[in-house]
């Protein structure tokens, strides 16, 4: 035995590295900067471009996760549209309103909506975990909450009021 060794080096791309075409990357960049969501970008790519290069066996379609992965690995931050600018996120198609939707509808802060939830004046239909809760408000609910808002404003709560006014009891709101 001579003790000779051989050294072989092979280029191996990093985990998650995907070679995508420059055209595809340019399209993802432009759609990202237009403010499109990852799922919208995936739908667009599925209509325009060949199968996703990150796809393994099975589906070759672009998905939200695949677009997000490529954006992340290429350092493309998602341009977020403010839902207050677009009106999105205030009410769902099924009629449920978000916390911010209730606040906008009644002209109060989202903090006030949170306080009303804690006090039992309003109960979410769907309670989210670390996300917005969703509410179904009837016309009578809106009238009751508007009256509560006005009563609280008269007692000093709201814009320009003093901070130490006492909270309104449930019985007082119906007087």
Task: Explain what this protein looks like in three dimensions.
This protein is an all-alpha fold. It is built from seven helices and two strands; from the N terminus they run H-H-H-H-E-H-H-E-H. The chain has helices at residues 22-33, 38-48, 64-73, 83-86, 99-106, 110-119, 139-154, and strands at 97-98, 134-135. Strands 1-2 form a two-stranded antiparallel sheet. Helix 2 packs across helix 3 and helix 5 crosses helix 6.
Structural class: mainly alpha
> How much helicity do the residues have?
40-55%
Main β sheet profile: 2 strands, antiparallel
Principal-axis shape: elongated
Spans with pLDDT under 50 lasting ≥5 residues? 82-86, 160-165
Mean pLDDT: 75
Which keywords apply here?
two-stranded antiparallel ribbon; single chain; 7 helices; 2 strands; 175 residues
What topology emerges from the helices and strands here?
Blueprint: H1 22-33, H2 38-48, H3 64-73, H4 83-86, E1 97-98, H5 99-106, H6 110-119, E2 134-135, H7 139-154
Antiparallel strand pairs: 1-2
Helix pairs in contact: 2-3, 5-6
Short description:
The protein has helices spanning 22-33, 38-48, 64-73, 83-86, 99-106, 110-119, 139-154, and strands at residues 97-98, 134-135. The protein is an all-alpha fold.
